[in-house]
Amino acid sequence: MQYDAIIVGAGPNGLAGAITLQQQGLRTLLLEAKPTIGGGMRSAELTLPGFVHDICSAVHPLGAGSPFFRQLDLQAFGLEFVHPPVLAAHPLDDGSAGALYRSFDYTAAALGADESAYRSLLGGLYRDWPQIDKDVLGPLSLPSHPLMMAKFGLTALRRASDIVKRFNTQQARGLWAGIAGHSMLPLDHYTTAAAGCVLMLAGHHHGWPIPKGGSQSMATALAGLYQSLGGVIQTDTYVKSPDELPAAKAVLFDLSPQQLVSIAGQQFSSIYLKQLKRFRYGMGVFKIDWALDGPVPFTNEACRNAGTVHLGNTFEEIAHAEKAVWNGQHPEKPFVLLAQQSLFDHSRAPEGKHTAWAYCHVPSGAEKI
Questions:
Q1: How many domains, in total, are found in the chain?
Q2: Which residue in 51, 121, 243, 360 has the fewest CB atoms around it within 10 Å?
Q3: What residue numbers bound the domain in which 144 lies?
């Protein structure tokens, strides 16, 4: 065999899989259809010269908090995280805002009347997180701390629309809506509380950092580590059939179900092929990048100092917008997620200039129009 394993798709999962196999002494080949590796972790000058924009992912709470990534010395390969003073802010129409900070205690205190509710919701999980993060974020297996995981599950498996009833202030309710909205599910669906809990807990322990120079720097660091272990990367290689691949004992695909069917569907059992074809894709996204003469002029100070800003006003308005998108509709006031990378990473724009990046959820398939 020419290779022990071939990995098709050099996104974050493909890179992680390739590194893991190469660490075990196997001979691997990583293939990528695009000219650059990274999948969602790519950056480019999309607007004007000198303005570096993230093509997909921008802020990485789970990049910094991932148990797998934390065990890798990616700093040795050039990765540097920049930490905004405010992780995420959620402005309301009255000029106030809820905010998530690295400090658990500061975040709770800043929520005022909802301080005790925030502590009740996340205080125990915040203390447990270092013991359960590997089980929560890793492959399904018997947990190392079953009781702690059970406690996490009792909260995480619930609906975000149920959890929000704990809060009384619009600031806390809006903050919860914006973070739980990362689930890309209607907020009245079960397990949507998991997205809110995990992102808040990851933020308190590891921040919501921005990779200096763009998300591409994460992919570059992972690739550098992989190649230092002897791994081989080949870009501009669009795989249409397994028959095109070099000889290997195993082939791993870091692709979507539709892509997998088009490439290797003829080699799967009828049952598995039917399952892949029945896969239902979730919401899509519509994204805009800006090259700006100055920072976004938010009136609220927390928003001016936040790496991420969630725009959608109240919990009810965000829940309504996300439900509409799920049902195939375009809401008049969509929930918007905005990142302000250049405020904290001055390599992203020419001196005195700034970038901003934002997206909203759209019905599945609409992003292709």
A1: 2
A2: 243
A3: 82-209+282-368
